[in-house]
C-alpha cells in the first residue's frame, strides 16, 4: 500500500487552510500591516462570521482583495439529523459535490465534534460503511477546520462551545497526515478556538510510520488505535490494512508512543457478534496488552446493512469487559449516541450517494 498523503489542491484556496503565520505572510506580500492577520483570525475563529464583508474593522479594499483571493464558504449543509439524545449529524457538501459527515455529540461534560479527514476511505475495514465506495480524495486542513467552525456556529446561539474533538469520522487521518496536523495546530491555537490538547483524540487504524511521526510531535493530543482483534490472523480478516502494518508492528509502535510520551493510549475494539467477541478473544487481548499504559474502548458494532455482521448480545459485551478488567486492563463500553439517526460513520453519506 502506497502512502496516500497527497495534498488536495484547489485553484482558489480556502481561508481556513491558513495558519496565523501564513496569514501574516500573506498580509506582508500585500503590503498590509501584519496585525491585520490577527484581526482576520479573530473574525474567523472568535467572532465566526460567514463572509469577508462582515469584517468591519478591515478596510474595504482589503476585504475585496480577500474576497478575490480566497474561498470563504467551504461547506454547505445538505441535511442534518437530530437524535433524541441531542446528537446532531450533518451531511456537508464540498465545492466539488462530494459529501462528508460531521457529528456533534452532547455529553454532560461538554460538546464533542467528530470530524472527517477524507472523502471516503481506502482502509477497507469490513465493518465500516465509510469505505464502501473507496477513497475519493483527502480533505484539506481548511475543510476539516470548517467542520468544527460549523459545529461551533450551531452551538453559538445556545452560548455553548465545542469542548472536545475526536478525529474518528470517515477516513484515515494518518493517510492525510500533514492536513490533519495543520488542522490540529489551528484547533489548539490560543487566539483561535483554543481547544485543550488533552481534549482532542486522533484515531488511526495503525499506519505505523505515521504513529512514530506523531509520537515525535510531542503533543498532549490523545492517540487511539483501532485494534479490533487480539491477533494478526483475525485482524487481517477484519482490517486489510493489517496485511501492510502487522499486528505486532502496531503494538510495538504503541509501546514506543507510551514510552516516549508517558501518555496512555486508547484501543478501540468493535465487538462483532461471533467474530471477535468470544471470551478467548478477551483473554488473548488482555495478554497482549499486559503492562501497557492503556485503556480499551469496547464498541458494540452498528448494523451496516451492506455487511453481514450481527450485534454482540448485551451479556457477552459485559463478559468481554469483565475478562479484561479481571486481567488488570481498564475497559469501558462506548455509550451509544445517535442510534436513531444512522450513527455509524459513513452511513449517511452512503445513503446520499445512492440517491444522487
Ligand atoms: S473504520 Fe476508519 S479506517 Fe476503517 S474503513 Fe472506516 S473510516 Fe476507514
TrEMBL record:
Transmembrane region(s): none
Entry's cofactor comment: Binds 1 [4Fe-4S] cluster. The cluster is coordinated with 3 cysteines and an exchangeable S-adenosyl-L-methionine.
InterPro entries in the cross-refs: Aldolase_TIM (IPR013785), Methyltransferase_A (IPR040072), RlmN_N (IPR048641), RNA_MTrfase_RlmN (IPR027492), rRNA_lsu_MTrfase_RlmN/Cfr (IPR004383), rSAM (IPR007197), rSAM_sf (IPR058240)
Domain Radical SAM core: 107-340
Pfam (any one): Radical_SAM
Cofactor(s) the protein needs: [4Fe-4S] cluster
Catalytic center residues: 101, 345
GO cellular component: cytoplasm
Subcellular localization(s) per the UniProt record: Cytoplasm
NCBIfam families: rRNA_mod_RlmN (TIGR00048)
Misc note: Reaction proceeds by a ping-pong mechanism involving intermediate methylation of a conserved cysteine residue.
Role played: Specifically methylates position 2 of adenine 2503 in 23S rRNA and position 2 of adenine 37 in tRNAs.
Protein known as: Probable dual-specificity RNA methyltransferase RlmN
Source organism: Paenibacillus herberti
Gene, per the UniProt record: rlmN
